[in-house]
Amino acid sequence: MTRARYDDPWRINADLHCHSHISDGTLAPEVVAQRAADHGVQMWALTDHDEVGGLAVAKLVAEQAGLYFVPGVEVSVTWGGQTIHIVGLNINFEDPVLIDGLARTRGGREARARDMAEQLARVGIEGAYEGALRFVGNPALISRTHFARHLVESGVCEDVGQVFMRYLTEGKPGYIEHRWARLSDAVLWIRSAGGVAVIAHPGRYKLNDLALNALFDEFREAGGEAIEVVSGSHTKDQIGRFAQLARDYNFLGSRGSDFHGPNESHVELGQVVALPDRVVPVWSRWAEGHDATL
Ligand code: AMP
Ligand code: MN
Ligand code: MN
Ligand code: MN
């Protein structure tokens, strides 16, 4: 891949985490690409859940719109009994090891969705599987978000957040325990595809300091190199905390909105704060300039 050159790579508007309807975003990949450009993004990664099917068209449109395109993916992982998301950036999305790993990770979604619908039917919500399917852009990737959209549209809940709270999180009637990929496998697939593995939105996990350290240690041992410091789901305090942790662990820092669509995300593409100065941007791996030191 050619390296991008910027006068000051620290300062570019990089948005390295978002979704299209190839996973649980609401817009087509080419629409997200154009929207990123329209909102001032300069370097952009599409990171659909467990899927690389949108990357070819996203790359085409992004490059036409003048963006530096970074092929990405967000892999679902089960670690310590929790779901953790690992973003892979700058991946070769034709790599067979990655493609096979992602296909196996996606594989359980169909049965899980049917089980979710069955559970929901027990609390009086009929037809949720068929309803959720109407929101699915890619039949191989039915997610809780699609159920949430259906339950909002059918008037069961007021918004997507409420559906998650009442029905789709642990202990709630529509929640189905699921085993995703292993942390070490997700990192291996990403590295096999030449990419950099990044822990997505570390502020979202329910982990105490000890568990978070254990996650970071294990991730690093597996070959993980970066964490998201700036995320659409991080508070200002969390950004400060993860900036410090990135330094302590010698991780590169990433920045991404985690945009899913205009009506659902509180954060627009490219509209999150800048990566703090003391963190080395993950994109210094492929964007060079006089400030890039790696
Ligand atoms: P799944 O991969 O099917 O478990 O769905 C996970 C997706 O659900 C995440 O990527 C988010 O987009 C969405 N999600 C998870 N928790 C919430 C929440 N509390 N409110 C809104 N969306 C959520
Ligand atoms: Mn999502
Ligand atoms: Mn995520
Ligand atoms: Mn995401």
Descriptive report:
With 294 residues, this protein is of the alpha/beta class. It has 2 domains: 3-106 and 183-293, Metal-dependent hydrolases (TIM Barrel, Alpha-Beta Barrel), CATH 3.20.20.140; 109-168, DNA polymerase, domain 1. Helix content is 37%, strand content 15%. The protein has 10 helices and 9 strands. It has helices at residues 29-38, 55-64, 96-107, 109-122, 128-133, 144-153, 160-168, 183-192, 209-222, 236-249, and strands spanning 4-5, 14-15, 43-46, 68-79, 82-89, 196-199, 226-231, 252-256, 287-288. It has a 7-stranded mixed β-sheet with strand order 2-3-4-5-6-7-8. Strands 1-9 form a two-stranded parallel ribbon. A hairpin with a 2-residue loop joins strand 4 (68-79) and strand 5 (82-89). It binds adenosine monophosphate and manganese (II) ion (3 copies). One manganese (II) ion binds at residues 74, 85, 200-201.
Query: Mind telling me the CATH superfamily name of the largest domain?
Result: Metal-dependent hydrolases
CATH fold-type name of the largest domain: TIM Barrel
Mind summarizing the main beta sheet? 7 strands, mixed
Count of extended strands: 9
Low-confidence segments, ≥5 residues, pLDDT <50? 290-294
Helix content: 25-40%
CATH architecture of the largest domain: Alpha-Beta Barrel
Order of helices and strands: EEHEHEEHHHHHHEHEHEE
CATH class of the largest domain, please?
A: Alpha Beta
From the spread of the alpha carbons, the general shape counts as globular
Radius of gyration: 18 Å
- Name the hetero compounds present: adenosine monophosphate, manganese (II) ion
Widest beta sheet: strand line-up: 2-3-4-5-6-7-8
Look at the structure and give the mean pLDDT: 95
Number of domains: 2
Class per helix and strand makeup? alpha/beta
- Approximately how much beta-strand content do the residues carry? 15-25%
Distance N terminus to C terminus?
16 Å
Count every helix, treating DSSP H or I runs of 4 or more residues as helices.
10
